[in-house]
Amino acid sequence: MLILLDENLLSKKLNKPFVDAGHLVQNVEDMGWRGVKDPELLTLPQAHPFDIFITADKNLPYQQNLQCLTLQIVVLDAKSTRPDYLLLLIIHINGLLQSLVPGSVTLINDAGKVTTFNLVAG
């Protein structure tokens, strides 16, 4: 799978679990997209084509229209964006990648609870 990590996930430490599992990983800085606003940032990965976009921006599903996207979005709903803190969530997500549905938004919290964001209500 081709994975794009958002600006808040630039640490190389967060790439490693995905790379070790055989996935290709880029981040928005690698792509030259750092500072790009969310509406455009959500359309750019589909043209490359990334399979999954992972972010720690908890507000993203509430602020953007995600209904037309084919990209799988994973939101880390964590109290901290420190790489050491997020690493456990990244490892947990790595085991779930194959089960994610294209066009879905999946939230994962600090306790590792995984929920699907309701795009119709959101």
Report on this structure.
This protein has 122 residues and is α/β, with parallel strands linked by helices. It has 4 helices and 6 strands; from the N terminus they run E-H-E-H-E-H-E-H-E-E. The protein has a 6-stranded mixed sheet with strand order 2-1-3-4-5-6, with helices on one face. It is globular, with a radius of gyration of 13 Å. The mean pLDDT is 86.
Count of helix runs:
4
Overall mean confidence score, pLDDT:
86
What structural class results from the helix and strand content? Answer: alpha/beta
What is the N-to-C succession of helices and strands?
EHEHEHEHEE
From the spread of the alpha carbons, the general shape counts as globular
Give the C-alpha Rg.
13 Å
Instruction: Kindly report how far apart the N and C termini lie.
Output: 27 Å
Strand element count = 6
Taking the sheet with the most strands, its summary is:
6 strands, mixed
- What share of residues are in beta strands? 15-25%
Which strand order spans the largest sheet, edge to edge or round the barrel? 2-1-3-4-5-6
Low-confidence blocks of residues: none
Q: Report helical residue fraction.
A: 25-40%
Quick description:
By secondary structure, this protein is α/β, with parallel strands linked by helices. It has four helices and six strands, in the order E-H-E-H-E-H-E-H-E-E.
